[in-house]
Protein: TetR/AcrR family transcriptional regulator
Organism: Rhizobium mulingense
Amino acid sequence: MAVKENLRPGGRSARVQASVHKAVRELLAEMNRAEVTIPSIAARAGVTPSTIYRRWGDLQELLADVAVERLRPDMPPIDAGSGKADLQAWAEQYAEEMSSGPGREMIRDVLAAQAGANACKCCEYTRQQIVLIAERAKARGEAFPDVDRAMDEVVAPIIYRILFGDVPDAARVRALVARAMDSAS
Amino acid sequence: MAVKENLRPGGRSARVQASVHKAVRELLAEMNRAEVTIPSIAARAGVTPSTIYRRWGDLQELLADVAVERLRPDMPPIDAGSGKADLQAWAEQYAEEMSSGPGREMIRDVLAAQAGANACKCCEYTRQQIVLIAERAKARGEAFPDVDRAMDEVVAPIIYRILFGDVPDAARVRALVARAMDSAS
């Protein structure tokens, strides 16, 4: 089910969304995710369960929507002085966050929803961070790999390893970044 | 919950497993996955629900166990005459299978289980196929990338793109294989 985008800030719809998201975050912090239900979220948010069903379709879609919101980067990548240093600092932090308990839960929630819209959004957030790094590198006159290539060679192996049971350590992440950077020079 | 490995073929435990797996496959073919329950699986398999709970813990673990079994390759990669041709043929088929409806459902089931054991097993099956291709290439005296590198540069981007909403087409898969092969020459 598609979640409405571009809600008018402060509008009734935006207030409902903010209140439901807040209720989900609070309940997930207080109890096991298996215990979180739509009626309990509705009660906490002060809306009716049917408001939630109408808007999100089912619990899994709502959890995915909240997870994506939490995966949205809250600041641009750190400027570490060069494209390579920027990509390395970003990738190390990304690998660390995504392989943490909450990071894994969020990826799982995003991927568990039937509609793929949230997974795309999540990938797009990551891509935007790489675009920012690439633009800064370009402004400095540095060689930097194509953004798609950085996604394939740095982001994809990090996520694949996290999902399939082999957490990438910092040395591994640095090797991925070095390889992707070599391809650009 | 860990599922017992290396069951004695034909033993009682192996027969229970085969019968439960068969029941799951049949039910998934007949109805929506949301309608499949442990009691319905138990009834079809001719075992008690508690047998299933004891052995698999919960429905998600059982679905993951069945999905991994279906993801196990049933033959070695096609010998297409060279390491590059072998890897290309294998990767195209892999991308096609994994991005199909059933392929996505299987990946989702494997990843949704809390215990990571099945995800590791799934990754290991894939790795073994690449090892076979690498060994054949070596026997022919050809250059072939390190298996970890082929996992990072070919398998990871295929799965990342499938999971995050951008199905890799054949041209994309060929480009990934060509790049990985270049790294070895």
Summary: The domain at 12-57 of chain B is CATH 1.10.10 (Arc Repressor Mutant, subunit A). The interface with chain A takes residues 108, 111-112, 116-117, 119-120, 122-123, 151-153, 155-157, 159-161, 163-166, 176, 179, 183 of chain B (CB under 8 Å).
